[in-house]
Amino acid sequence: MLVALTLVHVMEIVVHVVQRILAAAQFAAEKHATQKRKGAAQEPYINHLIEVAHLIAGSSDTLDTELVMAGFLHDTVEDTGVTLAELAQRFGNDVASLVAEVTDDKSLPKEARKALQVKDAPKKSPRAQTLKLADKISNLRSILASPPADWSLKRRREYFDWAKQVVDGLTVPNPRLKAEFDRVYTSFKDSPGI
Ligand code: ZN
């Protein structure tokens, strides 16, 4: 069935989409307000969330509104104590289930969580794989640009190799994001002293 959309209707849809994405951005900014990135530059945590959402928005020629929203919200459950039920109530079940797919079980020790990310990567839905990939790109970029002051070269190298293991396990990596991940990974491997 063909539906005739007038320009007014299209603008209403665009305004609605922008409002939903900005509501997710504002919620994330409030919840992460006191958090900083681990890097020496101590960037506000929201910079990471904007970067992830921006990577997702640029990963395709069509807009997946819920996935962009999940980009902003992906660390709220893990890092700020927001519940999946609250996300579902505010932003809908689709956004909440995307966030659930990329949320680690914090009751597990760190090494177990990292191993589980590698093991579980192939089981994620295609959209969660896109989110995961965008998250890893942002994390690697920030370690390249501003590594945590107490991270040795060995620790940085291990982190990059672990991120690559997770990404290599993705069964349907978004091609644009995979190319960007490979570029960032290679630029680390090619940097002096590595
Ligand atoms: Zn993240």
List the helices and strands and how they pair.
Blueprint: H1 7-31, H2 45-57, H3 65-73, H4 76-80, H5 84-91, H6 93-101, H7 110-120, H8 126-145, H9 153-168, H10 175-189
Helix pairs in contact: 1-3, 2-3, 2-8, 3-6, 5-6, 7-9, 8-9, 8-10, 9-10
Zinc ion binds at residues 48, 74-75, 135.
Describe this structure in words.
The chain has 10 helices and no strands. By secondary structure, the protein is an all-alpha fold. The protein has one domain (2-189): Hypothetical protein af1432 (Orthogonal Bundle), CATH 1.10.3210.10. The structure holds zinc ion.
What's the N-to-C terminus distance? 58 Å
The radius of gyration computed from the alpha-carbon positions, rounded to a whole number of angstroms, is: 18 Å
N to C succession of SSEs: HHHHHHHHHH
Total tally of structural domains: 1
CATH superfamily: Hypothetical protein af1432
- The name of the CATH topology is Hypothetical protein af1432
Major sheet: size, sense and barrel closure?
A: none
Low confidence ranges: none
CATH architecture: Orthogonal Bundle
How many beta-strand elements? Answer: 0
Number of helical elements: 10
Give every kind of bound small molecule, once each: zinc ion
Name of the level-1 CATH class = Mainly Alpha
* Beta-strand content bin: under 5%
The overall average pLDDT, rounded, is 95
Provide the structure class: mainly alpha
Helical percentage: 55-70%
From the spread of the alpha carbons, the general shape counts as globular
